Structures are given as structure tokens and as C-alpha cells.
Amino acid sequence: MATKVTLLAVLVVVGYKMFSPPPVQPPLPHERRKYGKEDNVDWIAGKQWLLVSSQIIVAFPAACEAVVLILRDHRGPVSGFVLSHLVYCDREYAYRLKMSSIFLAGWSAAVAGGLFRMHCYRVLGPQYTFQRAIIDGHQLITTGPYAIVRHPAYAGFNVYMLGTLIALLAGPGSWVTECGVLGSSTLGRFVVGAWVLCAFHFMVMAFCRCAGEDEVLRKEFGDKWVRWSQRTPARLLPGIY
Q: Taking the model in full, what pTM does it have?
């Protein structure tokens, strides 16, 4: 039990870091102008409460599972009250939560994707912002993860989100599949549905952003971008996209 709680906590922390704004000065209006109209991610990035809401939504299922694992062996009014709002069937079903090979595979992918994305933060430095921009003194980064694919931060993000979905939804032994969340709770179905929609929305937006960013960078850096795109033809997935 303790091992899975620890792994779930790591998943939550990585997700929190993924949705935390970079510790740099937000781009100025003139630096964002070359991208034209802001997209959904630009809009969300400009609203702190939406970023916090995204962090909560992404962390919620893993946090619920960890709480059930911690409290299922405790008998008392507090644990009984909490579990009555998290286990929507017989309390004994809480003991069906366990480690599984599917959970470990999804967890490993999610953490690897999150760490890869955070590495991109460090490589880009002050150029890494949630809002698309060509900042003053912008340089075209073509080394490190940017020598593998042209948009590695988005690739890492999508791997994290997909891995999280697999870890917490796809296999046996999870809170969602074992505790009646989808079968007996309207609130549970709503929360999980919102979580899945949020995950897929950001994954789709990552794909959609690639072409627009490539076009702006091509115009900004000309032949340097062309040579880079020839050396690194993949946007997100080598040999596929």
C-alpha cells in the first residue's frame, strides 16, 4: 500500500509542476504579437485561477486513490465519513485497490514524460513560456531534446497525460475502476469525465500548436529554421509526426 501511495504522490507532484507557470517574466504584448490571436492555452495561461483549476483536476483521481489507500484500514468517524464520499459501493471494495502492471506502465510513461518536459524548461530557460511568444533576443534552440523532435515539451506533456490516463483508468486495482466511481456516483462520473476531457483537450491543443509555432519560427529564423527542420523532421513523434 505504501509503495502505491508514494507513486501516486509522485504523479501528483509531477502534474503540479507541469501546470505551474515557468518562473520567468510573462511575455510582453509586443512579444506575443507575431502569433496573432491567442489560442485556448494562451487564454488559460493568462488566468491564474484556470491554471490552479487544471492542477486540481489533473491531481484529483490520483489524490482520491491515495486517500482511500491510506484510510481503508482505519476505523473511525473521520475515515468513515471520507470513505463514504469516495467509495460508492461496499467499503470492502476499497481493498481491491492494488498495484498492477498496467498502473506501473502508465505511471512510468507519465513520470518519464513529465521529467522530459521539465528538462525542456531548463534547456529553453527564459524563452519557455506558456503563452506563445518571440521574446526580445529570442534564440532558436536546436540541441538537446530539440535535436530529437522540434516540440519536445509538447511531446513530454502528451506522454504524461496519456500515461496518467492509462495508470488511473485502464487497469484493475484503481479507485476509478474498483470503487463504483463510474457506476454509482453522478458526481464521480462528472469529475472523471471532466478530468478526461481536460486531458484530451490539452493533448489536442499541443498537436494543434505545432504547425503554427513552426510557421512563426520559420519566418523569424529563415534558413536556420529550415536547416533545423531538415535535421529534425519530426514535430512530436520521430518517424510518425
A: 0.89
